[in-house]
């Protein structure tokens, strides 16, 4: 009560006094060292004596490390030498980058025939070009392009990389990949420069154009490509020669593309009400999850040939890829199941109330929500798989790590270990970091609620 | 649906892969000739014996014997696909038919020859376990190693030989074991142990990568017998003969003074009946092997004789630097053990 009194008193006084214009004093500077980088340092690094000591010790350690790294890796390093002895003579204490430099192409292509390396490059560029429409927001036709990429790109590249006689069947099958690629590129160009995909343009010109006639157009393209393609024959490059980053990408790429769909199927199977399907899925998942990947790989490489009839051999790389795929699918199934379980029951009930059956409920209501929730887990699974592919080095495939190890055992470079391993670490870091950034981007793009 | 396509994609990789069933009664020779290339098993790269060069090709002492067999059987030493597997699965991988022969510093022992369904053909290199010490230590004989700390790779026969040797000599030692050879070398160079033990060929090649190899010496004693040579599957004697006599052809060629440079001249002009028989100018030594009469000529022309191969990959001019003169790997005429039965 007394407060109210005093306030009214002051108000009265104010009214009676001659009102001076209100001139706020200029704000005083904050007391020294409370803002700015110096203040931040004082607060975070030198707050107490103990902090100061720890800071100084850490700074010294970091300085020494960086100085050592810079002198070893840059200042004293050798970039030009024919063998390790020459490196040692030039600079005994520095890094010998000449080795990884000379072996760079081998790290990328492995033992792939030197004259045929363009095929790997071509395969890579086709992949990148095919992925461009998926990342451009201006392009509207995304789903068919993605499906074409996942389903037909392997058909085309498996011949491109392996080569040999194709026969009629493989000519036609691999030509489908080329036809789909050309189709995707035509669509991309039309969308970029004409603003509409092929289907829409045709619709404008000739009136209604049905899905069927578009398929006919693709079929004609496919037939044309097959005829041209049948005249091309590439030299055989057997898979024992595939190596380096190329093989890492092949194994990881196929593993990743296979794992997600197979994982979804397995996870749905595990939640199925049909006992047979459920039991098969549970057994598969549990068996593959309870053994290490290296065991599966060893089984695939040494045991499988023993079960095959004598004289029948089965490509080693393919066996490793199948092993990686099955293993990755089992892990992915559990990630997907985790996502499915986080969907509240109300969603199922609401879907049922709208009269949706099992497939529509799953495809339209449950999966889209669950997949969005699972993105971080799925991507960390992919990253794990990408790194796990190094295990194929143990069964004698020369992936990136295998090539790095081969280099330190080559007569000219015996014992050169640190530099090639650092190179491999850098490549793996770039790959994994890019994937994790992409996951973040996807999460931001898809998160429509809970902001 | 999607699964089906992915399986198809995987099958796409297998296309043309060697999935053709072969009749059971076909000999290895027939299979290799039909296939058009040979599968040779080597190990994970090992300097001098089997390693990758900067063009992605396999080369080395053991690789050369595979190339010799390919030259004899197919007339082209490049018609080989190399399988590189870890030493744990090497015998399985030969027995299950993935490789036609194995040539990868594998020691010929009674157990391996008699119990694994494999046949050792002959010896291409006599190795043995030894010790590497720094010259500063002043040690000149392994008898002076009592109480030494010994660096050794774990899980190998090297480790067993080591303890056998010290026990039989009544000496003590402190083992310092490693999984990885590069870590072992680093420890040894920093003085973490007094001695490094391994097969002498391995010691020589590792020493070549030391900052100053001249400061280290390999002690004269050899504490184990390690005869290394190519291995084939049991049950196909013809194929075993081909591998064995391919090596013998290289040894005999060196003994008779035939090398890759003068082989054409020798074939045309030599009057020595053994040279003529070896090079197919007369006689029919090739018929028993099922090869053409220029098989040995091809080996020497395309790969070289034993001495050439040795000097090219592990001799004193290479970084591996294992001196041949005076060792067991000299020709028998020079006091070594490299000896071939006669070509008659």
Keywords summarizing the entry:
heterodimer, A: 451 residues, mainly alpha, MetI-like fold, 3 domains, 19 helices, 0% strand, globular, B: 344 residues, alpha/beta, D-Maltodextrin-Binding Protein, domain 2, 2 domains, five-stranded mixed β-sheet, three-stranded parallel β-sheet, disordered N terminus
Question: How does this model look, in words?
Answer:
The complex is a heterodimer of chains A (451) and B (344). Chain A is an all-alpha fold and 451 residues long. Chain A has 3 domains: 36-102, no CATH class; 103-112 and 241-451, MetI-like (MetI-like fold, Orthogonal Bundle); 117-236, no CATH class. Chain A is 72% helix and 0% strand. The mean pLDDT of chain A is 86. With 344 residues, chain B is an alpha/beta fold. Chain B folds into 2 domains: 26-126 and 228-334, 3-Layer(aba) Sandwich (D-Maltodextrin-Binding Protein, domain 2); 129-224, Periplasmic binding protein-like II (D-Maltodextrin-Binding Protein, domain 2). In chain B, 36% of the residues lie in helices and 16% in strands. Chain B contains 13 helices and 14 strands. Chain B has a 5-stranded mixed β-sheet, sandwiched between helices. In chain B, strands 4-1-5 form a 3-stranded parallel β-sheet. Chain B has a two-stranded antiparallel sheet with strand order 2-3. In chain B, strand 2 and strand 3 form a beta hairpin. The interface between A and B is large, with 73 and 58 residues.
């Amino acid at each position: 009560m007394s407060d109210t009194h005093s306030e009214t008193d002051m108000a009265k006084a104010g009214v009676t006094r001659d009102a001076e214009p209100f001139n706020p004093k200029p704000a005083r500077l904050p007391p020294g060292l409370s803002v700015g980088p110096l203040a931040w340092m004082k607060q975070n690094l030198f707050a107490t004596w103990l902090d100061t000591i720890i800071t100084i010790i850490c700074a010294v350690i970091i300085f020494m490390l960086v100085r050592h790294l810079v002198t070893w890796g840059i200042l004293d390093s050798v970039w030009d030498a024919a063998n390790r002895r020459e490196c040692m003579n030039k600079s005994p204490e520095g890094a010998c980058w000449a080795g990884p430099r000379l072996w760079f192409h081998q790290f990328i292509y492995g033992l792939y025939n030197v004259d045929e390396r363009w095929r790997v490059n071509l395969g890579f560029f086709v992949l990148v070009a095919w992925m461009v429409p998926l990342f451009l927001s201006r392009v509207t036709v995304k789903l068919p392009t993605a499906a074409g990429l996942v389903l037909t790109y392997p058909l085309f590249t498996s011949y491109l990389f392996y080569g040999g006689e194709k026969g009629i069947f493989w000519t036609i099958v691999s030509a489908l990949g080329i036809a789909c690629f050309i189709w995707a590129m035509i669509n991309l160009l039309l969308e970029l420069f004409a603003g509409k995909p092929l289907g829409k343009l045709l619709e404008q010109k000739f009136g209604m154009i049905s899905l069927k006639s578009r398929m006919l157009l693709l079929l004609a393209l496919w037939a044309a490509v097959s005829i041209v393609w049948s005249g091309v024959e590439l030299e055989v490059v057997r898979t024992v020669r595939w190596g380096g980053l190329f093989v890492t990408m092949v194994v990881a790429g196929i593993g990743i593309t296979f794992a997600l769909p197979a994982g979804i199927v397995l996870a749905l199977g595990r939640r199925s009400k049909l006992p047979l399907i459920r039991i098969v899925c549970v057994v598969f998942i549990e068996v593959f999850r309870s053994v290490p990947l290296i065991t599966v790989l060893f089984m695939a490489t040494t045991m499988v040939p023993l079960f095959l009839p004598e004289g029948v051999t089965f490509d080693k790389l393919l066996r490793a890829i199948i092993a990686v795929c099955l293993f990755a699918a089992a892990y992915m199934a559990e990630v997907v199941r985790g996502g499915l379980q986080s969907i509240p029951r109300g969603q199922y009930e609401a879907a049922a109330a709208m009269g949706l059956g099992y497939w529509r409920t799953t495809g339209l209501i449950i999966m889209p929500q669950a997949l969005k929730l699972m993105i971080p887990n799925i991507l960390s699974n992919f990253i794990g798989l990408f790194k796990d592919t190094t295990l194929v080095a143990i069964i004698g495939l020369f992936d990136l790590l295998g090539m790095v190890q081969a280099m330190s055992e080559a007569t000219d470079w015996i014992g050169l270990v640190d530099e090639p391993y650092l190179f491999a670490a850098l490549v793996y870091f770039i790959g994994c970091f890019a994937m994790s950034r992409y996951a973040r981007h996807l999460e931001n793009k898809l998160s429509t609620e809970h902001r | 649906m999607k699964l089906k396509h992915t399986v198809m994609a995987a099958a796409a990789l297998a296309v043309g892969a060697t999935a053709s069933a072969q009749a059971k009664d076909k000999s290895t020779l027939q299979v290799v000739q039909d296939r058009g290339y040979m599968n040779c098993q080597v190990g994970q790269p090992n300097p001098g014996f089997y390693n990758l060069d900067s063009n992605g090709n396999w080369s080395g002492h053991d690789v050369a014997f595979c190339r010799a067999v390919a030259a004899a059987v197919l007339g082209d030493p490049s018609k080989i696909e190399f399988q590189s597997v870890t030493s744990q699965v090497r015998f399985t991988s030969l027995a299950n038919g993935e490789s036609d022969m194995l040539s990868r510093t594998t020691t010929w022992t009674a157990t391996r020859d008699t119990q694994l369904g494999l046949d050792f053909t002959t010896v291409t290199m006599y190795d043995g376990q030894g010790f590497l010490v720094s010259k500063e230590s002043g040690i000149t004989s392994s008898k002076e190693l009592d109480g030494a700390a010994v660096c050794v790779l774990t899980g190998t026969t090297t480790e067993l030989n080591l303890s056998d040797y010290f026990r039989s000599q009544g000496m003590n030692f402190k083992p310092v074991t490693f999984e990885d050879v590069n870590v072992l070398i680093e420890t040894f160079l920093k003085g973490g142990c007094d001695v490094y033990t391994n097969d002498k060929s391995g010691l020589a090649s590792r020493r070549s990568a030391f900052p100053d190899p001249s400061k280290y010496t390999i002690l004269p004693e050899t504490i184990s017998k390690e005869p290394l040579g190519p291995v084939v599957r049991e049950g196909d004697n013809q194929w075993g003969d081909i591998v064995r006599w391919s090596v013998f052809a290289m040894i005999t060629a060196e003994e008779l003074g035939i090398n890759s440079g003068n082989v054409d001249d020798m074939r045309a002009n030599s009057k020595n009946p053994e040279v003529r028989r070896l090079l197919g100018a007369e006689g029919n030594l090739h018929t028993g092997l099922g090869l053409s009469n220029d098989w040995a000529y091809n080996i020497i022309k395309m790969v070289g004789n034993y001495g050439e191969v040795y000097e090219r990959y592990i001799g004193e001019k290479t970084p591996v630097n294992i001196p041949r003169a005076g060792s067991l790997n000299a020709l028998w005429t020079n006091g070594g053990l490299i000896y071939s039965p006669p070509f008659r």
